[in-house]
Amino acid sequence: MINVYIDPPAHVYLGNALFKEDKKYDRDDILSIWRYLKNYCLGENINLNTIDFWNEDRATAEDIYISFEHKGFLRKVHWRFKDKRYPAIKLNNFKKRILFQFEPPLVMPEVYKNINKLLKIYDKIFLAGKINNHKINYFHYCQAYDRIFLDYWNNSDRKFLTMINSNKKIIDFKKILISVILNGNFSELKYKELLSSRIKAINFFSRTNDIDLYGSGWDKHPPFPYWFFKGAIQKVYKGTAKSKYITLSKYKFSICFENCIFLGYVTEKIFDCFLAGNIPVYLGAPDIQEYVPRECFIDMRNFKDYNELRNFLKSLTDKEINNYKRNARQFLESERFKPFAKEHFAKIFVDACVN
Question: Where in this chain does the record put each Fucosyltransferase C-terminal domain (predicted)?
Answer without folding.
Answer: 196-325
